[in-house]
What does this fold into?
Amino acid sequence: MDSEPRYLYKIISSRSPVTEPIPERLPVSDLDRRSGFIHLSTARQVPNTLKHFFKDEPLVYVLRIEYEKVMGDIRWESPDASDCGPRPGEGLFPVCVPFLEKIL
It folds into this structure.
């Protein structure tokens, strides 16, 4: 089992630009809204998340979230949602149950 991460990452498409300064709350993506949770990645997962889900994007925003601030809202799941647990593990992805508006 992996140790708890220091940060989690939210990748945002360039089609949903982030304004500067970054607002206190961000809109929820269509994918997150449909899924009912926020899709996140650990630092180790970011390269493959970019490769598989953002390969056609010319630009993305990668937002860093302190794990300690959201750990109570995080559930760890396998990509097919067949396995989940309270702590990070090999091959498990972090998902935040409340919407992004609450944590950023």
